[in-house]
TrEMBL record:
<protein>
    <submittedName>
        <fullName>Glyoxylase-like metal-dependent hydrolase (Beta-lactamase superfamily II)</fullName>
    </submittedName>
</protein>
<feature type="domain" description="Metallo-beta-lactamase">
    <location>
        <begin position="40"/>
        <end position="208"/>
    </location>
</feature>
<dbReference type="Pfam" id="PF00753">
    <property type="entry name" value="Lactamase_B"/>
</dbReference>
<dbReference type="GO" id="GO:0016787">
    <property type="term" value="F:hydrolase activity"/>
</dbReference>
<feature type="signal peptide">
    <location>
        <begin position="1"/>
        <end position="19"/>
    </location>
</feature>
<dbReference type="InterPro" id="IPR001279">
    <property type="entry name" value="Metallo-B-lactamas"/>
</dbReference>
<dbReference type="InterPro" id="IPR050855">
    <property type="entry name" value="NDM-1-like"/>
</dbReference>
<keyword id="KW-0732">Signal</keyword>
<keyword id="KW-0378">Hydrolase</keyword>
<dbReference type="InterPro" id="IPR036866">
    <property type="entry name" value="RibonucZ/Hydroxyglut_hydro"/>
</dbReference>
Length: 286
């Protein structure tokens, strides 16, 4: 039954009485990998005859809708719930999947932060430091930690044999990074994105933004490197924040969503990071 359902390329939403269902969608991406959308958030579902893999629940309302949709559409139990990182706007709703038959997993730093901040969601049962591979019949999900980039314990998820890569927050295709980079490590974002491009994959799915391929991820990396390089250059030339926000245009990336509104904020975020993490302000004063 499940394999026949997965063969469909166009899926309609199941009827549900849940309020706000128009905000939620579950759509095929590649092979047996589906993208779950809740507003402007995205997550991943991978159903198999041996059970279902679910990434970030996003919110209690979204998780409740998704759990019902999985039951109705695939008729297979959820086996794994995996958090992409520690941030509450991706991990809330984990309690909807709080059953003994479901293993909740995260990178160890993500779990540590959820516990310390007393985030009201399901706390992971299983953690890992660098890498972990989960098996569901003929399908696998490879989880990998890339170091600091956004939040704590942020990982990539590689789905095989579908050849899909899922990353949340530190890579957003078709859009600038979020506002003034609150919670971001620009150095780590660049390094982590370079590492991602060393991983073979066909299709990229992000926690926000659109889906894409390797070229789209490479273009996003180009923006990060150009932004960082121009801010360092301007700071060393003695420019103030206001002067940098006026002079740094990066017009080669003007097609990216939120270019006009967020480029000045991105510049501010990189400049702040240079002071907070690299002490550039103190270095320039010497």
């Amino acid at each position: 039954m499940l394999r026949a359902i997965l063969a469909f390329t166009i899926l309609s939403l199941s009827p549900t009485a849940f309020a706000g269902e128009a905000e939620f969608r579950l759509e095929p991406i590649q092979g047996n990998v589906f993208r779950f959308t809740a507003g402007h958030y995205h997550s991943i579902v991978m159903p198999t005859p041996e059970g279902c893999f679910v990434a970030d629940p996003i919110s209690p309302e979204a998780a409740r809708w998704l759990k019902n949709e999985i039951q109705q559409r695939f008729d297979t139990p959820v086996r794994y719930l995996v958090y992409s990182h520690n941030h509450f706007d991706h991990t809330l709703g984990g309690e909807i999947f709080d059953e003994p038959s479901i293993t909740c997993i995260s990178q160890e730093l993500a779990r540590e932060d959820l516990v310390r901040t007393r985030t009201e969601t399901r706390i992971p049962d299983l953690t890992f430091k660098d890498q972990l591979t989960l098996h569901l019949g003929d399908s696998q999900v490879h989880l990998r930690y890339h170091g600091s980039n956004n939040g704590r314990g942020s990982i990539s998820m590689k789905f095989m044999p579908a050849d899909v890569l899922f990353v949340v927050d530190w890579i957003v295709l078709g859009r600038l990074p979020y506002m003034d980079l609150k919670g971001y490590d620009i150095h780590g974002m660049i390094d982590s994105t370079r590492e991602v491009l060393d991983i073979p994959f066909t299709t990229f799915v992000g926690g926000h933004g659109r889906t894409g391929d390797r070229q789209d991820v490479a273009r996003y990396l180009g923006y990060l490197e150009a932004l960082y390089g121009r801010v360092v250059e301007a700071r060393r030339a003695g420019q103030t924040l206001a002067e940098m926000q006026k002079s740094i245009r990066l017009v080669e990336y003007k097609e990216l969503d939120r270019y006009q509104e967020w480029l000045p904020l991105n510049i501010e975020g990189v400049s702040r990071t240079l002071d907070d993490r690299s002490y550039l302000d103190m270095q320039m004063e010497r």
